[in-house]
Amino acid sequence: MTDTSTIAIKRLEPGDRSPWDDYVLARPDATFFHRAGWEEVIRRAFGHRTHYLYAQQGGKMVGVLPLVHVKSLLFGNALVSTPFCVYGGVVADSEAVHQALEATACRLAEESGVDHLEMRNTAPVNPEWKHKSLYFTFRKEIDADPEANMKAIPRKQRAMVRKGIKAGLESTIDDDIERLYRAYSESVRNLGTPVFPKKYFRILNEVFGEDCEVLTIIKDGQLIASVLSFYFRDQVLPYYGGGTNEARAVAGNDFMYWELMRRAAERGIRVFDYGRSKEGTGAYSFKKNWGFEPEPLSYEYYLVKAKDIPDVNPLNPKYRLFIQAWKRLPLPVSQQLGPLLARSLG
Question: Are 195 and 342 in contact (CB under 8 A)?
Fold first, then answer.
């Protein structure tokens, strides 16, 4: 029996944010999505109840677990680590600390009466829990030499990047999220996905500051594509992006990700994290075409009221009609209605 009697589990308070982030930055298994700033972002942007837990032992922080309660009539009732993020779960100094945080999360899930507790782990932790193998992440080391990075891109994809270069596309860093939101909202509407509210992107920019950057692609002053990326240690994570209708003809998205990679390498970044995609989707194939190998993510579920794990994703046949109808919405209508649904699609 593991002794957890000396471990105290506490809730994040405003004064704990700096020690929390110092801990996350020092832990090699922690991610950008474990940062304390997400608590503020999710609470302010979506109004969800947050439970950011940390473990203390001997007067020092020894583990963290970000949790958010997402409750929706349409999509269920869950405690998630962490919604709107691709990675989550427990980060801890020891197995005893891990167990103490996880046990607290399970008790909280039961007390809250949720359907399930979801841990977005990068690797398996609890083989006895239900798990979902739907998502894969794509990460790859990049070189300091841009020519080496260009040569590492498979030939067909490299030709698309060069097409964008020949088209005269240019990249620039934006100080706000206006052009990003235009390109992003148009793209997700075309995919049949509800758009997040504009204030979410403003809050991300405000909370994470220089670690949240918007790269925009233009041609003759016209918006072509834009992407919001996060920076964490030696990693860059392109996270929200999209292209306008003009992007396809000039390989706008291909050029955009190349420019992000080139600029990141110049500033000393050594890992390009393309984020998660579902197997069998266009995004999954696009990332493989860049020479990135898919790595399975281990999303694990502790069931409380639910009989099985949820299947809230666009590949579920029951959402097919909704997706097709959403694609036909006028853009302003999708921008107005989307946030009402997207807040529950974390």
Answer: yes
Q: What is the DSSP letter of 207?
A: H
For the chain, the C-alpha Rg in angstroms (whole number) is: 20
User: How many angstroms separate the Cα of 129 from the Cα of each of 75, 76, 308?
Assistant: 21, 19, 11
**Amino acid code (one letter) for 277:** S
Distance between CA atoms of residues 120 and 64, nearest Å? 14
Q: What is the pLDDT of residues 115-149, one digit of tens each?
A: 999 999 999 999 999 988 889 999 999 999 999 99
Where do we find the tokens 């790859």? 140
How many angstroms separate the CA atoms of 346 and 334, rounded? 18
Q: What tokens were used for 276?
A: 């998660």
The whole-angstrom separation of Cα 53 and Cα 80 is 13
Q: What is the pLDDT of residues 270-315, one digit of tens each?
A: 999 999 999 888 899 999 999 999 999 999 999 999 888 776 655 5
Four-residue CA torsion sign, 301, 302, 304, 306: positive
Q: Does the pTM exceed 0.90?
A: yes
Q: How many CB atoms lie within 10 A of CB 182?
A: 18
Distance CA 188, CA 195 (A): 6
- Kindly write down the DSSP assignment for every residue of 118-186, as one continuous string: EEEESS---TTSEEE--EEEEEEE--SSHHHHHHHS-HHHHHHHHHHHHTT-EEEEESSSHHHHHHHHH
- Measured CA to CA, the distance from residue 281 to residue 189 in angstroms comes to 16
What is the distance between the alpha carbons of residues 344 and 83, in angstroms, rounded to a whole number? 9
**How does pLDDT run across 94-122, given as a tens digit for each residue?**
999 999 999 999 999 999 999 999 999 99
